[in-house]
Structure prediction request, 351 residues.
Amino acid sequence: MDDVSFDVEDGKFFSILGPSGCGKTTLLRMIAGFIRQDEGTILFNGEDMSAVPPNRRPVNLVFQNLALFPMMDVFENVAFGLRRRGEKDAAVTRKVHDMLGRVGLPDAGKKRIGQLSGGQKQRIAIARCLVLDPAVLLLDEPLGALDAKLREHMKVELKTLQANVGTTFVYITHDQSEAMVMSDTVAVMNRGAFEQTGSPQELYHRPRSSFVAQFVGNNNRFSVTPARDEKGLVRGRYAGRFDFLLDAAGCDLGEGDPCELFVRPEAMVIEPEGGAERFNRMAVQVRAVLFDGGNSRLLVTPEGTDDEIVVMLPQTGLYDHIRAGDRITVGWNPDLSLCFAGNGGVLCDGR
Prediction:
């Protein structure tokens, strides 16, 4: 960890998003108490947890492999922590039945773990933790082992469940879609540090570094060299032939210094109409048409380069005639692009 500092609001869904090896699980294990931090403090409602062992902290952890007990039925899996805590049978029965109802499995108590679907197992693992009434539920990539269709379903399930029970969730994942769909707040992590923390909308529309711009959502990246034209406007030269309108206001873009320009595929327009002040444009060759229903897109190569960029296809049918090998023009409104100085951390709006 590198000087990580953050707050999680009570009752919210907070996600830590980052690539494998960036430190997400290490941070989660420090919160849980399995790893002692070298310096700094971890506070729960203002109370320092540094000397508090894991079993005394007001947290529970849901592992990726779920760690359910196959020799026990669902009821006993959920009841396990309560029995270990020494609660009476009547209280255990009441709490387990209440929690099974809250996770949408009121009649599953007598089932064996092997009789459950992947999504049901997921909910039982969460119920086993929530029945202990933790202040915080920690989730370590719990959807990683599920197939793609079930994972999409469980995103909605988890978001709804958290909203219903009101427990604070701290969730770690390398899947940006999971973090964006479920979370109130997302922290993007890179090399042991937080690059940016904000709402999913803030991270998507206003990334503060090139790492966040690339990691959150899809983006086309262009290496450009800025220079002022005869009107005093800053333009970025790409591939020695294309000039894209930029705006250096509010940031230090030195002329001739390399920059990174990002344009999302959905911001790209096929055969744009309007002058150079309204659209950056370039000639491209279509390499492939990637049909995927509402997520269909073109893979194109700008003339004179080997770069590949992605252009979303509008669902109007207007461009169904486009085929691989065609030469077309694509462009974008400069307001919908972002530019970062060569160090990757200085933001300049695209217009």
